[in-house]
Amino acid sequence: TISPRALFRSFAIAEMFTWAGLITALILRATEIADIVPIAGGIHGFVFLCYSASTIFVWVNQRWRFSLGLTGLLLAIVPFATVPFEVTVDRRGLLDGGWRLAPGGEEPRGLVEQVQAWVLRHVLLSILLLILLVTALFLTLLWLGPPLPRD
């Protein structure tokens, strides 16, 4: 299975690359070369949601302070900030270890840990449900339209 560190790193890097794609698309649109903002924005939005979900999952597993977990989430709205955040928490040892609530691990305490333990005991079903949830949220956001109207 993938470790908390590998999961978090993967989505932090993906978030950085999709920011680069979105910014490039905005520049191409502004210079009237091409308008691929809907595509780049859609990809970025989907990865943003995945990064957010993985941040929360790792936050619970690693027992991060509330302020640290919230910082990890908020930095996703700052271009390229997820990778420096990931490097910082990794250097501080805050991504070390495996899934503590996995089968044979610690007993979950509270609702959030019980949900995470269930996810770790039903990985394939959880991945399917997460894909469906993120897709539904993503499609809802697409239906609502971009945050700022185009000129």
Q: How would you describe the overall organization of this protein?
A:
The protein has 151 residues and is mainly α. The longest helix has 27 residues, at 4-30. The protein is 70% helix and 0% strand. α1 packs antiparallel against α4 (82-91), α2 packs antiparallel against α3 and α5 packs across α6 (123-144).
Keywords:
151 residues, mainly alpha, globular
SSE inventory with pairings:
Layout: H1 4-30, H2 37-62, H3 66-74, H4 82-91, H5 110-121, H6 123-144
Helix pairs in contact: 1-2, 1-4, 2-3, 2-6, 5-6
Q: How far apart are the first and last residues' alpha carbons, in Å?
A: 47 Å
Strand content: under 5%
Largest sheet: none
The secondary-structure class comes to mainly alpha
Give the overall average pLDDT.
92
Please state the CA-atom Rg, rounded to the nearest Å.
17 Å
Coarse shape: globular
Number of strands: 0
Element string (H = helix, E = strand)? HHHHHH
Helix content: over 70%
List segments where confidence is low: pLDDT < 50 over at least 5 consecutive residues: none
Number of contiguous helices: 6
Question: What is shown here, in short?
Answer:
The chain has 151 residues and is mostly helical. It has helices at residues 4-30, 37-62, 66-74, 82-91, 110-121, 123-144.
